[in-house]
């Protein structure tokens, strides 16, 4: 349960991160985007003050005590859920990572650093990490480009926009298992529709699911099909770009490409940045697609090239009952994801335009 | 502001710790000493297994439920597939069933972790002698550290199921399909195979090289698990087996092309590979004969055993078993129940039920492929009673072959890292067949990984 919650916590991260990235940075640029006291900071006077004075006001504006209490009461259910199922679970998994733990009997004995040492000694950790990073580098840019492309198309549709939006969002609603089954057939090297289609143009398609070089591109293809969540965020951002900017630029003689680079892209950079971070995290945690295509039953071999980090983590935990090692793996990927996200934030802040900033 | 933050932070930490304590507060239960089983029991018995049970399953379920029902015990059945994660979380939550059905190759792993009970006392209580009641190789599958941890059911021996129509068209006879004569065997495969570029449209022979990797290693005199339960994947004979498999696939367009072709088969459907003449022969467990019976008029099958390199018929034991978790609440009832499920009376009921459907269901063409119970005595009784000569000599011959080969079965051996050893072996075979690594290197890497897994569980 604990490991799984770490693996899947991307679903929890999404909404809270979006608020942190936008409102947190916009309202109080001088404070690190913190998590919990968000509701309080929104009411802080400094946020709207155009010229913050260094002189400290002796008596800061008092909160309405009752309102504050009510506010905390309202968020209590979430707070309790977060503390027990996210933070509590994470701390517990950290404890587990320093022990030899057996979930089924809830027994453990201390392991010191040996689980972390084993991470270094097990070549499969590095192989799976390499596979996962390679996949992320391949998948994230393609997802961004494809989602933006689809969103631009949808943005142009006038009549029946709702229908198209719904249709294009359907893949997101499809269970991963169904998607994987369909792609298992589509990607068959001999009889699959994709290679049959390529054969019409005289192209001999690859053995998508078997050739070690094509395993990860196959999963990228599957991911691209389900990119509609990202697409919808882009679509909302595109709709928010003020029309008059385009009109002015057009009068000045800017062509469509120039307009895209100089107006669209800066104006949607906030959601672009958000999507990059979220997709990177998701890519590094890829589990279901790889598991369903290559590890769904146990009489099937898989080459090392399809071993994703989360799949190996799952195998260690629930196939080999190696929970301590799996917890250490979870923390390693957590730290890696955090570092990558930090770098992305540092780099991103240089390019991202927030409307409320000057 | 600052104070509020501090307060919140400390509250957060405090609450998280409380949650932590709540999680870890449970006492570490579950020793490895088996419970004492008794003949008097009552209450409820929760059972997990029998997903999609057919008449063979339901008739035995009914029988066993009747047996424990006499002692005021009601059975609560969760008819879903075994799942390691579900087992673990249910055990952690204290709601583990009293009886769990799992594949025999997992048993040693769970035994080594102390999650299931040794059943020797259960057997002796009811006077069952495992080694004489079941095939010894079947009992070996569920033996760990000299104790028997599972009650076996079924023994599905694999053999080579032939498509006589494809063979005859290419001038291949049953005698050519002899794995102990590699040259003639490969020549026969080439004769039957039809390639469209490098993609096969007819495969002479599907060895199921990855799914049945263990069978191939053992048939070449290799091994996957040694006598102590340690992995033995780097046995030199294993590499020979992989090289032979590679030759077989290379004669049919290479592994990737052949595998994609096999993946596209309609295995359980109207256009299966024996109806559609897509294979000349393939390694299949005995149950596949049942899949083919509705198509008896459309197929011409036969069977030969897989031979060792010195020409002896060979097969391996595989099937499922019932285990009793260490934390089971009603082990005595569980013991009585699982022995009832696998008793001669239960199998007789299953034989009757199967016979009834064979008679009633016209699509079965009167073919009863027999039941492979895991117990030689029961197998023979049921064969004598229900497996009759039919209008389909090919089916009769194939069924007879499976019966004959059953006695030459070997166990893969049992190991606390059994699952991981099989997985590593299959990965190594895949890598070698795809040409990623030479077979010896692939096996060496697999051995290292399996040994790591073994050391973790054993150490």
TrEMBL record, chain B:
Residues spanning the signal sequence: 1-21
Pfam families for this protein: SBP_bac_1
Keyword entries, A-Z: Signal
Top-rank lineage group of the source organism: Bacteria
InterPro entries the UniProt entry points to: Bact_solute-bd_prot1, SBP
The protein's name in its UniProt record: Extracellular solute-binding protein
Protein species of origin: Naasia lichenicola
Taxonomic classification: Bacteria, Bacillati, Actinomycetota, Actinomycetes, Micrococcales
């Amino acid at each position: 349960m604990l490991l799984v919650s770490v693996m899947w916590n991307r679903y929890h991260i999404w909404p809270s991160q979006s608020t942190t990235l936008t409102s947190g940075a916009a309202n109080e640029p001088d404070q690190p985007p913190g998590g919990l006291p968000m509701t309080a900071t929104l009411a802080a006077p400094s946020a709207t003050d155009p010229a913050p004075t260094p002189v400290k006001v002796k008596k800061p504006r008092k909160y309405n005590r009752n309102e504050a209490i009510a506010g905390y009461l309202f968020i209590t259910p979430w707070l309790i859920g977060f503390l027990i199922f996210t933070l509590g679970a994470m701390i517990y998994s950290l404890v587990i990572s320093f022990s030899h733990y057996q979930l089924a009997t809830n027994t453990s004995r201390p392991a010191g650093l040996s689980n972390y040492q084993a991470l270094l000694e097990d070549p499969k950790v590095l192989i799976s990490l390499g596979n996962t990073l390679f996949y992320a580098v391949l998948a994230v840019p393609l997802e961004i480009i494809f989602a933006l492309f689809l969103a631009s198309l949808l943005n142009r549709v006038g009549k029946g926009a709702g229908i198209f939006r719904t249709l294009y969002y359907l893949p997101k609603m499809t269970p991963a298992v169904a998607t994987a089954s369909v792609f298992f057939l589509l990607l068959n090297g001999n009889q699959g529709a994709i290679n049959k289609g390529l054969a019409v143009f005289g192209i001999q398609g690859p053995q998508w699911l078997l050739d070690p070089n094509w395993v990860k591109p196959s999963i990228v293809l599957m991911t691209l099909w389900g990119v509609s969540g990202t697409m919808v965020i882009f679509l909302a951002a595109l709709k928010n770009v003020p029309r008059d900017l385009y009109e002015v630029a057009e009068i000045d003689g800017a062509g469509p490409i120039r307009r895209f680079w100089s107006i669209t892209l800066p104006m949607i950079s906030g959601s672009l940045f958000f999507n990059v971070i979220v997709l990177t995290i998701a890519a590094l945690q890829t589990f279901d697609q790889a598991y369903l295509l290559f590890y769904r039953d146990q009489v099937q071999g898989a080459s090392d090239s399809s071993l994703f980090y989360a799949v190996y983590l799952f195998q260690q935990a629930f196939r080999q009952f190696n929970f301590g090692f799996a917890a250490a793996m979870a923390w390693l990927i957590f730290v890696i994801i955090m570092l990558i996200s930090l770098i992305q934030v540092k780099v991103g802040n240089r390019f991202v335009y927030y409307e409320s900033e000057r | 502001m600052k104070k509020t933050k501090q307060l919140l932070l400390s509250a957060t930490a405090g609450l998280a710790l409380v949650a932590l304590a709540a999680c870890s507060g449970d006492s570490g239960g579950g020793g490895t000493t088996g419970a004492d089983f008794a003949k008097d029991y009552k209450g409820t018995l929760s059972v997990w297994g029998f997903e999609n049970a057919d008449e063979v399953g339901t008739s035995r379920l009914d029988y066993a439920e009747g047996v424990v029902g006499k002692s005021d015990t009601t059975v609560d059945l969760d008819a879903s597939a075994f799942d390691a994660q579900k087992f673990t979380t249910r055990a952690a939550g204290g709601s583990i069933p009293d009886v769990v059905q799992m594949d025999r190759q997992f048993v040693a792993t769970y035994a080594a972790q102390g999650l299931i009970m040794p059943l020797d006392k259960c057997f002796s209580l009811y006077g069952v002698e495992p080694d004489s009641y079941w095939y010894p190789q079947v009992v070996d599958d569920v033996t760990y550290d000299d104790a028997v941890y599972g009650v076996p059911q079924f023994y599905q021996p694999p053999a080579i199921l032939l498509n006589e129509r494809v063979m005859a068209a290419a001038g291949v006879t049953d005698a050519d399909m002899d794995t102990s004569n590699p040259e003639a065997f490969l020549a026969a495969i080439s004769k039957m195979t039809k390639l469209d570029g490098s993609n096969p449209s007819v495969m002479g022979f599907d060895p199921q090289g990855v799914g049945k990797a263990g069978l191939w290693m053992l048939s070449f005199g290799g091994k996957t698990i040694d006598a102590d339960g340690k992995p033995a994947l780097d046995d030199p004979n294993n590499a020979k087996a992989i090289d032979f498999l590679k030759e077989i696939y290379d004669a049919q367009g290479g592994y990737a092309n052949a595998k994609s072709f096999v993946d596209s088969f309609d295995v359980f459907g109207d256009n299966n590979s024996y109806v559609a003449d897509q294979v000349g022969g393939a390694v299949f467990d005995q149950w596949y004969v049942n899949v083919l019976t509705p198509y008896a008029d459309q197929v011409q099958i036969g069977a030969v055993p897989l031979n060792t390199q010195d020409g002896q018929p060979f097969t391996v034991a595989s099937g499922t078993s019932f285990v009793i978790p260490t934390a089971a609440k009603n082990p005595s009832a569980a013991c009585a129940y699982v022995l009832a499920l696998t008793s001669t009376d239960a199998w007789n009921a299953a034989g009757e039920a199967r016979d009834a459907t064979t008679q009633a269901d016209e699509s079965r063409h009167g073919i009863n492929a027999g039941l492979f119970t895991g117990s030689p005595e029961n197998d023979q009784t049921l064969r004598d009673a229900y497996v009759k000569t039919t209008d389909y000599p090919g089916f009769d011959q194939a069924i007879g072959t499976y019966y004959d080969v059953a006695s030459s079965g070997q166990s893969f051996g049992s190991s606390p890292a059994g699952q991981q050893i099989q997985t590593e072996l299959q990965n190594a075979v895949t890598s070698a067949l795809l040409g990623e690594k030479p077979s010896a290197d692939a096996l060496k890497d697999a051995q290292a990984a399996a040994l790591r897994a073994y050391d973790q569980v054993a150490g």
